[in-house]
Specification:
By secondary structure, this protein is mainly α. It has 2 helices and no strands. Helix 1 runs antiparallel to helix 2. The protein is elongated, with a radius of gyration of 20 Å.
Amino acid sequence: MSTKSPEPEIPVRRVDRILAFSALGLAAASILCFFAIIIGTAVGMEQKDFGGGAWPLVAAIPYWGLPVAFLMIIVLLVMSFIRKGRAASRP
C-alpha cells in the first residue's frame, strides 16, 4: 500500500522532455555509429575507405555526440534540482 507524498507534484516542462529525448537519441546514434565503425573495421575495410562517402560523418557523430549528450543530461539534472528546490520553498 502506498501513500501519497505531501509534497505537490512538479509538472515536467516541455524543455525537460526535449532535453531528455534529444540526449537519449544523440547517445543512441553515437553508440550505433561507434558499432558501425567497429564492424566496418572487422570486415576488413582499409583506413583509406573511411575517408570517403558518409564515413567521416559516421565517425564524427560519436566524437561529438557522446560529450554533447552528457552535457545535455547534466543540464537536465541541474534544471530539475533547481525546479524541485523552488517548488519545495513555496508555501
